Amino acid sequence: MRALARYLPILEWGRGYNRTVLTSDLVAAMIVTIMLIPQSLAYAMLAGLPPEVGLYASILPIFAYALFGTSRALAVGPVAVISLMTLTAASSVAAPGSPEFIAAALILALLSGLMLLAMGILRLGFLANLLSHPVVSGFITASGIIIATSQVKSLLGVQASGQAMPELVSTLVSSIPQTNLPTLVIGVAATAFLFWVRKGLKPLLVKAGLPPRPADLLAKAGPIAAVAVSTLAVIAFDLEAQGVKVVGDIPQSLPPFTVPLFDAELWGKLAVPALLLSIIGFVESVSVAQTLAAKKRQRISPDQELIGLGAANVAASFSGGYPVTGGFARSVVNFDAGAETPAAGAFTAIGILIAALFLTPLLASLPIATLAATIIVAVLSLVDFKTPREVFRYSRADFAAMMATILVTLLVGVEPGVIAGVALSLALFLWRASRPHAAIVGRVPETEHFRNVKRHKVFTDPRVLTIRIDESLTYLNARWLEEFVLEQVADAPQLRHLILMCSAVNAIDASALESMEAINHRLSDAGVTLHLSEVKGPVMDALERSHFLDALTGSVFLSQNAAFDAVVALANAEEASNGEPDPLLARGMI
Amino acid sequence: MRALARYLPILEWGRGYNRTVLTSDLVAAMIVTIMLIPQSLAYAMLAGLPPEVGLYASILPIFAYALFGTSRALAVGPVAVISLMTLTAASSVAAPGSPEFIAAALILALLSGLMLLAMGILRLGFLANLLSHPVVSGFITASGIIIATSQVKSLLGVQASGQAMPELVSTLVSSIPQTNLPTLVIGVAATAFLFWVRKGLKPLLVKAGLPPRPADLLAKAGPIAAVAVSTLAVIAFDLEAQGVKVVGDIPQSLPPFTVPLFDAELWGKLAVPALLLSIIGFVESVSVAQTLAAKKRQRISPDQELIGLGAANVAASFSGGYPVTGGFARSVVNFDAGAETPAAGAFTAIGILIAALFLTPLLASLPIATLAATIIVAVLSLVDFKTPREVFRYSRADFAAMMATILVTLLVGVEPGVIAGVALSLALFLWRASRPHAAIVGRVPETEHFRNVKRHKVFTDPRVLTIRIDESLTYLNARWLEEFVLEQVADAPQLRHLILMCSAVNAIDASALESMEAINHRLSDAGVTLHLSEVKGPVMDALERSHFLDALTGSVFLSQNAAFDAVVALANAEEASNGEPDPLLARGMI
């Protein structure tokens, strides 16, 4: 039962379900449903898919996540960045809007779902670590800019294409003369209204006496007002005849049962995009889920989240949808509206199902410019210029990875952008791991502490050198270690003893062990004895399984303080006996 | 002048050149020349190339390395593993022995040379770190087994092909019935003789009164005796008529001037093999050069070695050769024979040039079985079963990478073998970096030391928890850090203060900083104050450039001992004032 509950969290929260929780969940579901209807249509359009696909992607996937997911407030469905990635990936194999394009979107959802499930079962959630915060943040900012730019064409009522900025901007600029004036009026008005709703409406409602939370939720329903007013305007003034493009007829139906095409070549072409999309979606979703869980001291399990999102995507692929993930905006609304359990998600799904069955005729005259305005206002909140500044001040390496992600995403495309960010982060990490920090240290007078001779006034002895290595010793820095230690010795003619202070050495791998053996051997040829101090427990356990400790010319000391005292005494004794070290003393046996 | 000397080390050693050094160099060159003639022919044959190509690859490349290399004893030329890699790479685009195959070998040498030069100029020598000791050792052992097996066909006088063991063994076994008896006799006799020379001759000569060094060098000349005797046997008994294959006519000429073909498609196909071959050759060569330099307290510069080897390979590509690197056996002979400067290499090149011009007619009747015997005896010394056992005992992760390299190399091929080893090492490294070691620590009674509560009897306080993180905090483990810290807190209801002991934290990147901020925030929500202790200088410098220290709920302490005392006092004060912490006290300002 407990093991089963790990894979089916519903068994856990389902037991405590009662009428109070039900009421909270129902209220949250109603609010989220109202918000989701225009958003689902808009994101499907952004992905190059018919609008109803957005509704379908918000029904079964939510049920699937409610069964397998661990977050209580996460709302799964179409999101902006994943829609953009779907557009890019499916465009590489078919023309947007074509039946092949819709088929490619289903395959992407299935592949992504299977990959997420596999990663969850194999507990490969740690792979998401390869995306650092700056890379993800840079990617989302760049995607937000691309998405907003791509929607400007719908505000102007013109054609423009391209998935990276250079093409997007040039096709957009060249089509400005074809601008449709009524479309522009609707688009600009809707955008301005939505920005005002976001910034100005809530303070106004609070001033009018409404408590902050309801005021906030009412402001979140702004898009519905824009949808209603602009649809009525189109009908009242027959704007369609004047060239205003509208959503058109949406079939009234349950989500269709779809079977993704199996075509090995197509799957092969879509595999890498599906993987990138899965990982980006997972990272986004988990960070939203973690933020919300922490607020209520709940916990989520990242490996189980992979299974929840995987199931949601597989469900999307069999019900006419496209790739989905946990969205930030909708999850926050869900949480703020008081959702207590994943059942709120299920109720939302029922709400959207009702919309798909009965409300779509009302949306036939909805202008596409209004949907574009919704997208623009939503994604501009993703664009973040503050984080790059802070990262720049904190770490140039992280900033380099972030800028590479932003620039490659903007100039080349979303997939190369993610890959460039991950590759550069990894290369910088490996480069740093291969040139670790190390310091010559000496004793801080009157203490047992040893500090960097360059940063502190410390006591040293010309016959004894202590090197503190500030990194685990691995194959990446084994060669560096040999070079660094032997250089220090070459520059110190009086030197007789070298202490490697290992307080920051958390592991020594087989390559580094070979280098330590080489160092011990070469120092011995040079008449220098090698000692170790402050070796950590697990490292010492490993060394004891090798021949290194037998070959070591000096001793291993528990503390650097004891090492320094003993070794200075040894050097004194050697000088007294005319430079001939007492072998027993040198091995620390006296 | 000094800057120039960095790129042209000859300007440094050339100044001190005198008659004594000249004599040493000349003697060493003569010995190495005698050893190199049969070896060069044999390795060219192993690479699927005409025998003279081996001689050409031992002339100009040596001059080029003598100009640019930093090792004084390294002998550059054809080596076994690189010959095998050349065979594999060139076979993928042409049939061994064909003119296209020879052209491919020239392209490989040029590409490899240009890549090494580029890495040297860009100082990318650290990329060679990606090959760990166990991977290189496993690769060389597996290559040795493949090479030895591939030569058995020449001992039997049969045809067999394949670059990985399964095909090699099956074609060999099926051709056993075609064994040529005279060839087998020569092959087995030569192999047995060479093994005896290696193991038994030197002790015999020493017993006969010869000093050890000349005895050793004389034993190294054994292959020449095998070449001479077997050639004479072929001529005396007309064994060619009985089916013994011989080297045949070798053109008597200077190295030809060759221009590698430029064909973008072919270059594209050979680029990855050339890169692998370059890095394997560089790693091998540098470790030989470092070992020899350390014996005489000389230094080599790895980045300059890239330039030396790059120049040697470019020279090979323009003089009818094939990829070369610094060989272990020949370099050791050169060193033992007393080579003092790279001039010894230049003299060796002149010796081989003389051989190419005048001695090749003597080699026409040399049986190929003798060359195969030379290769088998040489490469079996590369096969090492001791290291895998030691690595197994020391580290399972390193052993896994090593075995993957050995098995994939044997079963699939040399290039997949190297790639599998590098990829697995990297994956294991990243996995470990993403799950670092961390310990709850307490004070060792009567000391200022804090140790793992699981390994030592230590003093702790239920209201104060100290976590020592044994790794740098990076994007790879940022998520782990959040989960680990919050789990500890969830399991300790009495907890009021958490100290992160950062003595082993050598860096905190932007992702980890964000996680630290999240931890600080969430702990504060849970009524737990966060403190840091023993933060290293460079890490503190970085933290001071962020907002973290302003937001930190607790203080930063120089030593863990001071931190523990202050925080326990703080907890006592809080209890006395009925749980309400004094804000000034909590910020460490009292």
Automatic annotation (TrEMBL), chains A, B:
Subcellular localization(s) per the UniProt record: Membrane
Residue spans crossing the bilayer: 21-41, 53-68, 75-95, 101-122, 134-156, 176-197, 217-237, 270-294, 306-329, 366-383, 403-431
Keyword Transmembrane helix attributed: yes
Chief subcellular location: membrane
CDD domains per the UniProt record, alphabetical: STAS_SulP_like_sulfate_transporter
Origin superkingdom: Bacteria
Protein's UniProt name: SulP family inorganic anion transporter
Organism classification: Bacteria, Pseudomonadati, Pseudomonadota, Alphaproteobacteria, Sphingomonadales
